[in-house]
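Sequence in, structure out. Go.
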Amino acid sequence: MISKTPKFWENKYHLLTFALYPFSIIYYIFFKLNSFLQKQNRRKLKLKAICIGNIYLGGTGKTPLAHKIFQDLKNNRKCCVLKKFNKNQDDEIKMLRQKTTLFTPKTRLSGLLHAEKNGFDTVILDDGMQDYSFNKYKSILCIKSDVGFGNEFMIPAGPLREPLSSIKNYNIALINGNKCELIEKKLKKIHKDIIIFYSKYTIQNKAKFLNKKFLAFSGISNNDSFFRLLKFNNLDIKLTKSFEDHHSFTNHEIEYLLNICNQQKLNIITTEKNYHGIPRQYKDKISYIKLKLEINNFEKFLNEIN
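Output:
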């Protein structure tokens, strides 16, 4: 997992973009071959598989959306969340397990078949749009408005996991952040019937952090976006420390951060996801920001996935 998005991923004409482009072609060929082979044995499911995905490598808000959809469907459906097991994403798995009915199979198809066998009628998949081994009932594309699609090249020359043309496989686009007509036009050009919604994060426990000074640390795909959110909400952030996404924090690292806080008389905060990744003995010394995902026209959004 990359710790920071390469700057050249924003630039179509960067020297590294050109140098790596041949490898992107190779990646594209393997991607197309793999998807073709999976489609030959694609399984039809009786349950509704709602897949939350992205085409931009890294965090785009899939996990918070999976949790939100689960919370709003669980009273009317027998539903669960499915996230393919990945030992490097233990923080997200722990967070989802506390808040949802969670399956973490070795393959998504085996997990879906297990859910179907056990009477679940709806499964919310946290990631999986690049998995063509099963039919999807609805597909939601998560996008961050401040990065969009980068330079629009596939990895490693750019940030895309699949070509932009794959947008046609999605029913809904959820853009997190400010309204962006450029992204909307790009989406509609490729898929005129895609339905676009916007979302934002609000801090639920903001009051407890006001009038205090903080060291903020995080290990997510875009650490700067977390720090900007804190400052936008008038939290007094004196220092920031960034780690790679899904970082597994060691005792030494946490002790180092706590020592800085003691020396400079600072409090310490992190993300909810990273809080689940710190050693247990330090959890009473560290606070986390509790974020709420808000979706514009949420009732319409729910109608689209029902």
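Check: The longest helix spans residues 15-40. The mean pLDDT is 95.
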